[in-house]
Design a protein that fits this description.
alpha+beta; three-stranded antiparallel beta sheet; transmembrane helix; membrane
Length: 311
């Protein structure tokens, strides 16, 4: 039984060495007697026991490698600490096995040196604003250098760009000054707009007032013209009526009576409103006129009485 067990185990060991199953996500590099033989893709394969062996196994999926933080100097002599992530994939198992000792460590180191070189070409502000172009430059340089290694660098992403404490304080002061500057500019623009609006309002007010005064004068002129026209027409009609009345019998007497009444009325107004009594020269004639009127009145009064006595 012991011999059978040994034989069974030996046969199983031979079968284990004879058969090889490569998973879907891998490629295996086979060496025969220490020399490269082939690269086996995913699937079932047969090997020569004790002659062929799996020297390397490579994952064909995309890998993510962490790039440790490192100190860099920008173009304007600012010290920065930068880290990132590099994404790569094995394209050729033979070159990845024999082209370099450790392609992962080589890719990380190459990413660090390339990143340091590319940041040295940019200023501090450009490193923050041009991350995409910086990532593309690093990927292009790493991919060019890693081509003999049988890997493909797909992309590179910068995680953090951390300036020194002194630079951070300087940036904070600069940002505060910039914010203060923008606030002052905003206030100045607001005051400017307010003054413009006030001046435009005053200008519009002056225009409206002048337009109102202009329209008022026009209306007054039109009203005055219409008033003069109406008065002139009334005077014309009155003069025509007076001329017609004068042509009739007794018209002159009526005209004289009206003029006398107006004269007496005007003289009375002057005497009532004036503080100094002024007696015009015509008052003597006026007095004689009234005396004559009084005599006529007495004569008329006596005439009926004499007539009654004669009867």
């Amino acid at each position: 039984m012991f011999e059978l067990t040994i034989a069974f185990l030996f046969i199983m060991f031979i079968l284990y060495k004879l058969m090889l199953i490569v998973p879907m996500r891998e490629v295996n590099v086979i060496e025969r007697l220490g020399k490269f033989r082939t690269v086996l893709k995913p699937g079932f394969h047969f090997l020569v026991p004790f002659v062929d062996r799996v020297a390397y196994r490579h994952d064909t999926r995309e890998e993510v490698l962490d790039v440790p933080p490192q100190s860099c100097i920008s173009k304007d002599n600012t010290q920065l600490e930068v880290d990132g992530l590099v994404y790569l994939k094995v394209m050729d198992g033979k070159l990845a096995s024999y082209g370099i000792e450790n392609y992962r460590r080589a890719a990380v180191n190459l990413a660090q040196t390339t990143m340091r070189s590319e940041i040295g070409k940019l200023t501090l502000s450009q490193t923050f604003s041009e991350r995409d172009s910086l990532n593309e430059s690093i990927v292009r340089e790493i991919d060019k250098a890693s081509d003999p290694w049988g890997i493909k660098v797909l992309r590179y992403e910068i995680k953090n760009i951390t300036p020194s404490i002194h630079v951070i304080h300087t940036l904070e002061k600069q940002m505060e000054a910039e914010r203060r500057k923008r606030a002052e500019i905003t206030l100045a623009n607001a005051e400017k707009d307010a003054m413009i609006n006030i001046s435009q309002g005053e200008r519009q007010e002056a225009i409206n007032l002048s337009e109102g005064q202009k329209q008022k004068r026009i209306n007054e002129a039109v009203g005055s013209g219409q008033q003069i026209t109406i008065i002139a027409q009334a005077k014309s009609e009155g003069m025509n009526m007076i001329c017609t009345a004068l042509d009739n019998e007794g018209g002159n007497d009526a005209m004289n009576m009206m003029l006398k009444e107006q004269f007496i009325s005007q003289v009375g107004n002057i005497l009532s409103e004036s503080q100094v009594s002024i007696v015009p020269a015509e008052m003597a004639k006026l007095e004689g006129f009234f005396e004559g009127m009084e005599q006529v009145t007495h004569a008329v009064a006596k005439a009926p009485a004499a007539t009654k006595g004669a009867r």
